Amino acid sequence: MQGNIYGYIRVSGTDQNEERQKIAISARLVPKQNIYMDKQSGKDFNRPQYKKMVKRLREGDLLYVLSIDRLGRNYEEVQNQWRILTKEIGIDICVIDMPLLDTRNGKDLMGTFIADLVLQILSFVAQNERENIRVRQAQGIAAAKARGVRFGRPPKPLPENYFEVYRRWKAGEISGVAAAEECEMTLSRFRYQAQSYERLSI
Asked: Tell me: the pLDDT tens digits for 163-199?
């Protein structure tokens, strides 16, 4: 039964380029209106465009993805989705970068066995790479912090009169509460900034 042809594209973030996937899928003559793209992590399948596409899939349709990690990066989830798409819905899937993962070929027992084996290996590799990326990110953040790079919201600038008020407070001329009020700061922030300044001055 000849069905519709679909293509699925995924990149992990808005800063990543999806052009290579678009070119590969367009070369398979997939209609533009049947190409779905998510800019989201592959950790699960809770992706709006993917879910929208799955609702349209019918038995006999064909889905193209460039590589198995574009489908997803969670070993168990990829296996489960593959089963849903090919067994429950009854579509064919072609992974362009891996000809052995083309369910149109090798429908006999040996072909199915080989395809299942390749799928398990590739989905494991995809998840392993995702975990390695997370480790590398954590190591990069730790290294940046060790170099003094600060993450998060930049600190609010100190008021212009802060150091004059600080000097008077330190000399005992005014109380901490009065000093904080003059600087339009909370008492805790005034004291925190004073401690930071004193550490830097040592």
From this structure: 888 889 988 889 989 999 988 888 888 888 888 777 7
Does residue 109 belong to any structural domain of this protein?
A: yes
Distance CA 46, CA 50 (A): 8
The pairing of beta strand 5-11 with beta strand 92-95? unpaired
What pTM, to 2 d.p., does this model score?
A: 0.58
First to last CA, the chain: 80
- Say which of 12, 26, 41, 67 is annotated catalytic: 12
Number of domains in the chain: 2
Active site residue 12: yes
Residue 166: give the domain boundaries: 162-201
- Residue 69 CA to residue 125 CA, distance in Å, equals 9
